[in-house]
Design a protein that fits this description.
- The chain is mainly β and 305 residues long.
- It has one domain: Jelly Rolls, CATH 2.60.120.
- The chain is 4% helix and 51% strand.
- The protein has one helix and 24 strands.
- Strand 3 and strand 4 form a beta hairpin.
- The protein is globular, with a radius of gyration of 18 Å.
Length: 305
């Protein structure tokens, strides 16, 4: 999604002692025609497992002809995961995919060595748009592989004592998402009102992003615009929602390799970033075209060049 994506080197996070959850503020940004709250990456918290980017999109007013309005732009080395809780958006990519996404549906685009996509108005939806776009750093085995796109409109749900969880990536409580994932991780949409103890995998670190409402997590308040981080070696977390609340839980096994992120590229070195940048700017066949009425987005020049 990001046309002003992360422009910072990303190393493995160093753990620090303190109360949990560790709470950090999101960065506010303008992406296309909507406002976002960027929970990842942030200084001091670059990734959670393989999850390396998290934008809370909206809520924003969109029309039939003006939506996200993010023109064609490239990705390498990641999967983009798009999940809405309100509204509709249109995805187009260089694989020929053209897919409207609505609440309860999932888009997963695997960039591999390179893919181009645009995010547009649907041509028919007018109203509020809100959701998240998340990035998953691909592991060494698949990060230079072929691009792919998947859409799912039937995902497993779990009844909880205080609401419902939808498993959009990975597996939890015996329910598995059909979406591709190349490392051990989980992504849940939580619709909560009340108190519960949520089981966690102790070999994962986890993060909570509130989209609507508010939570108390182990007794600490968490509201939109913040990320609540939970370290590994815990097998549950106490969550309380005094009012109806929507939140995203992501988790995964701690990465064994450093990441290097610049704009929309996730790599392992500056050399790889330079190669992707040069290919995009020169119109190299690594990045094929996508049919879109929106203008192609030019990459910012890396600061080291």
């Amino acid at each position: 999604m990001s046309d002003d994506g992360p422009r910072i080197a990303v190393a493995r996070t160093t753990e620090v002692p303190g109360d949990e959850p560790e709470i950090t503020e999101s960065h506010y940004a303008r992406v296309g025609h909507v406002d976002v709250r960027r929970a990842l990456p942030r200084r001091g918290r670059r990734n959670i497992g393989a999850w390396c980017f998290a934008d809370h999109v909206g809520p924003a007013d969109v029309s039939e002809e003006s939506g996200l309005d993010i023109g064609p732009h490239p990705h390498v080395g990641v999967q983009t995961v798009t999940w809405l809780i309100d509204g509709q958006a249109l995805h187009r990519d260089s694989l020929g995919s053209e897919q409207v996404i609505a609440p309860g549906q999932l888009n997963v685009m695997t960039a591999g060595r390179g893919v181009v996509h645009a995010e547009e108005a649907t041509g028919h939806y007018r109203g509020t748009l809100q959701g998240v776009q998340l990035w998953i750093a691909l592991p060494e085995a698949t990060r230079d592989g072929r691009a792919a796109f998947e859409h799912f409109d039937d995902l497993p749900t779990i009844d909880l004592p205080a609401g419902r969880a939808t498993v959009f990536i990975g597996e939890t409580l015996g329910r598995s998402s059909p979406a591709r994932h190349d490392s051990e991780l989980v992504g849940l949409d939580l619709a909560l009102h009340g108190d519960l103890t949520l089981p966690l995998r102790p070999d994962f670190d986890h993060g909570l992003i509130v989209l609507e409402g508010s939570l108390k997590v182990n007794g600490r308040g968490l509201a939109p615009g913040h990320l609540g981080y939970l370290r590994p070696e815990r097998d549950e977390v106490a969550i309380s929602a005094a009012h109806a609340t929507r939140a995203i839980l992501v988790g995964g096994v701690t990465l064994d390799e450093p990441l290097f992120m610049w704009w929309n590229f996730v790599a392992r070195s500056r050399r790889e970033i330079d190669e992707a940048y040069d290919a995009w700017e020169s119109g190299d066949e690594r990045f094929t075209t996508v049919t879109s009425s929106l203008a192609r987005i030019q990459a910012p020049t890396p600061h080291w060049r």
